[in-house]
Amino acid sequence: MTAPVDLLAPALSDAIARALGPEFAGADPVLRPSQYADVQANAALALAKRVGASPRDVATRIVAELGDLPVSIDVSGPGFLNLTFDDAWIESLLADLAADERLGVPTQEAQVVPIDYSAPNVAKEMHVGHLRTTVVGDALARVLEHLGHRVVRQNHIGDWGTPFGMLIEHLLDVGEGSEQALLLESDPNAFYQAARAQFDGDEDFATRARARVVSLQAGDEDTLRLWSELVELSRRYFNRIYATLGVTLTDGDLAGESTYNDDLAGICDELEAAGLATMSDGALCVFLDGYTGREGKPQPLIIRKSDGGYGYATTDLATIRHRVERLGADRCLYVIGVPQALHLEMVWETARLAGWLPDHVEVVHVRIGNVLGEDRKILRTRSGAPLRLMALLEEAMANARREVDRTRPELPEEVRASIAPQVGIGAVKYADLSVAHDSEYVFDLDRMLAYTGNTGPYLQYATTRIRSIFRSAGVDPRFEAPISLGAPAERALALRLLAFGSVVAEVGDDLAPHRLCTYLFELAQEFSTFYEQCPVLKADTVEQRGSRLSLSAVTLAVLVQGLDLLGIEAPERM
Ligand code: ARG
Predict the structure, then answer these.
(1) CATH top-level class of 4-85
(2) Ligand 1, residues 234, 254, 340: which to mutate, most atoms within 8 A of Cβ?
(3) Which of 37, 83, 240, 380 has its CA 20 to 30 A from that of 293?
(4) Are 215 and 116 in contact (CB under 8 A)?
(5) Are 179 and 191 in contact (CB under 8 A)?
(6) Number of Cβ within a 10 Å radius of residue 465
(7) What is the CATH code of the structural domain delimited by 436-566?
(8) In Å, what is the CA distance from 533 to each residue of 328, 487, 540, 545, 548?
(9) Ligand 1 close to Cβ of residue 121 (< 6 A)
(10) How far does Cα 3 stand from its chain's mean position?
(11) What mean pLDDT comes out for the span 173-184?
């Protein structure tokens, strides 16, 4: 199942080769949207010079070779080919789409795609940046899986490093299982801040914390047990957030920094043996051509600090080896903040030089832009208090609940209670997804929750409106009947529906979920126009009613499937 444009392109290419000669085989027909037709082909203008004829002449020669296509064509202006698809053709493509459970989405040749996303830090609050990588990464995982790829989720949590000395000592001081220890499950920053205050204010505590880091690194059994207690409590906190968000991450996807502990010494040895790493001021560093820092000084990638400890760069080198060698990756995605671009580039370059990242493996930084507060600074606090992600999500759900109570008081209490999280969370997730993932945006709950505009609730509402048409009609929304196109709004809707598969494929290629959002938003708007202009339940004939119900059914299926690929639920009513 493909969109008419995708089917037409090869026929046009062939006609170009037949008309202009075999040296033009595979020429791009240069298809563009048009105001005057369904699509415009500008190849004649692009090729005229090479052919040595006027564009209009070239256009006429191409048309003469097009043969029998289900389109009407006219040559306009200097040599544009305006192509209008025959209604019968669109109708038959749409019938195929309606019968296709994949709704036109192709199944691609399977690749192994590890996706690094979410990656919060143990004993710390998840912030809105973590929220965004979680939501975007999860949408990419869903889309790529749906396209047939083997996605391996990699949650690279920050579960190792020097802060664990102070965190463990604080855990011992407050007592395992104490109320303060359990803060790690609900308000991790409170625990972290308390540990930090001890460390900064109490010399004895600081000395114990430093000694604890040494025992942790030495693999002392009791220390490791306390460390895993901290990780376990944090895991419960992460999982509460994940469950609230409805993301697909599970415990099986955890592959935190500590996973790679045993690999780090070997990585340093190999890099040193290969002559790629050298000692500089007591630290083991990789210096790469073209990377300079302040004052033009070479910028090092530090892989072993002067105190012997390993850092973020070394564990990320380990992630590459793991994903390439053990997971068999074809394409690795790192869904991480924009500021980490340089870090990733240097890590990848080092891995390439070391032979750990072969050319056939693609690595992509899916850059996550900052989420800003109303003051246009990175959103960290709300009304003075440090931002708690759970509180933010709860606020979104509470606001959604208020709106449902106001607009649908007649719905039973338990129905309203189940709609509110779907709408509140859908709104927050959609806001993260609907702007390009690498651009900044201002976090504004009121705007996200609006039922109008390019928002989650608008799209969810569009699906419930279609469901209510089916309730009034007394038929199942999986309705199928022959579709015949009459009104322009029906035709526009049909063409949009036929594009779904290629949009999803494009999101898989370009890793840009906002394109799917734009598509769904435009589809919902086109459905609205159709519904205003084309009576469904009061259609003129039984056939017309059937056809319009069928169009509505396909629209509903595409909207629900599209939202599901974004990780957004579609309530039955709202
Ligand atoms: N834990 C890090 C942070 O909170 C993000 C880790 C991203 N993943 C990676 N492989 N470096 O900033």
Answers:
(1) alpha beta
(2) 340
(3) 380
(4) no
(5) no
(6) 17
(7) 1.10.730.10
(8) 53, 8, 13, 13, 11
(9) yes
(10) 24
(11) 97
CATH 3.30.1360.70 residue window(s) in the chain: 4-85
Tell me, using a 6 A CB cutoff, whether residue 125 lines ligand 1: no
For ligand 1, whether the C-beta of 156 sits within 6 Å is yes
- Amino acid identity, position 489: A
Of all protein residues, the one whose alpha carbon is nearest to atom 8 of ligand 1 is 156
Q: How far apart are the first and last CA of the chain?
A: 33
Q: What SS3 class is residue 352?
A: helix
Q: The whole model's pTM is what?
A: 0.95
For tokens 């669109």, the residue is 90
Q: Mapping DSSP to helix (H, G, I), strand (E, B) and coil, where does residue 304 land? A: strand
Residue 3's pLDDT band, with cuts at 50, 70 and 90, is: confident
DSSP 324: I
**283 touches ligand 1 (CB under 6 Å):** no
The DSSP-derived string for 462-474 is: HHHHHHHHHHHHT
Q: Is the pLDDT of residue 104 over 70?
A: yes
| Residue 43 structure tokens | 């190849």
Q: What is the pLDDT of residue 213?
A: 95
Cα 485-487-489 angle, rounded to 5 deg: 100
Tell me which residue has its CA closest to atom 4 in ligand 1. 120
pLDDT class of 113 with cuts at 50, 70, 90: very high
Q: Atom 2 in ligand 1: which residue has the minimum CA distance?
A: 119
Q: What is the mean pLDDT of residues 389-393?
A: 94
- The pick from 121, 322, 389 for probing ligand 1's pocket by mutation, whose C-beta has the most ligand atoms within 8 angstroms, reads 121
- Does ligand 1 lie within 6 Å of residue 82's CB atom? no
Q: Give the phi and the psi of residue 375 in degrees, each rounded to 5.
A: -80, 5
Q: What is the pLDDT of residue 322?
A: 98
Half-sphere exposure of 461 (CA within 13 A, CB side): 20
Local confidence band at 380 (pLDDT 50, 70, 90 cut-offs): confident
CA of 445 to the centre of ligand 1 (A): 26
**Ligand 1: does its nearest atom lie under 6 Å from the Cβ of 336?**
yes
> Taking 70 as the threshold, does the pLDDT of residue 278 lie above it?
yes
Strands 31-32 and 39-41: antiparallel
Other C-beta atoms closer than 10 Å to the C-beta of 369 total 18
Instruction: Express as a percent the part of the chain with pLDDT over 70.
Output: 99
Asked whether the beta carbons of 85 and 70 are under 8 A apart, the reply is yes
Does the pLDDT of residue 68 top 60, yes or no?
yes
The ligand 1 atom at the shortest distance from the C-alpha of residue 343 is: 11
